[in-house]
Amino acid sequence: MAWLYLVVAGLLEVLWAFTMKQSHGFSRLTPSIITLIAMIASFGLLSMAMRTLPLGTAYTIWTGIGAVGAFVVGITVLGEQITPMRIAAAALIVSGLVLMKLSSAD
């Protein structure tokens, strides 16, 4: 169950990063509210996952899902630039996440 909490927490991190961008510095109410709710839920689920998962594994996976997810949302939704270097960087992050998961006993 901890892994499910962790994945959902990571996806919520992507949501709050996107809605934070949409809030324009917290000057727009609806995206600001969504950002704060998603942040609280993401941190709450991360803390639940950390009850059984090692700190380094949980935090690395959470931030990795957020980083790669925000990268994908930036490209697909916001029209951000795709470059070979950015794709390589995302691939390295995903590789690190896989290695972290494989190295975890849980």
Write the layout of secondary structure elements.
Layout lengths: L1 H21 L6 H21 L5 H22 L7 H20 L3
Family: Belongs to the drug/metabolite transporter (DMT) superfamily. Small multidrug resistance (SMR) (TC 2.A.7.1) family. Gdx/SugE subfamily.
Protein name: Guanidinium exporter
Keywords: Cell membrane, Membrane, Transmembrane, Transmembrane helix, Transport
Strand segment count = 0
Total count of helical runs of at least 4 residues: 4
Helix and strand sequence? HHHH
Oligomer designation: single chain
User: What is the percentage of strand-forming residues?
Assistant: under 5%
> Average pLDDT, to the nearest integer?
95
- Helicity range: over 70%
Structural class by helix and strand composition: mainly alpha
Low-confidence sequence ranges:
none
**What best-fitting shape do the alpha-carbon axes yield?**
flat
Query: How many separate domains make up the residues?
Result: 1
Q: How would a crystallographer describe the biggest sheet?
A: none
Distance between the termini: 11 Å
Report the radius of gyration as a whole number of Å.
Answer: 15 Å
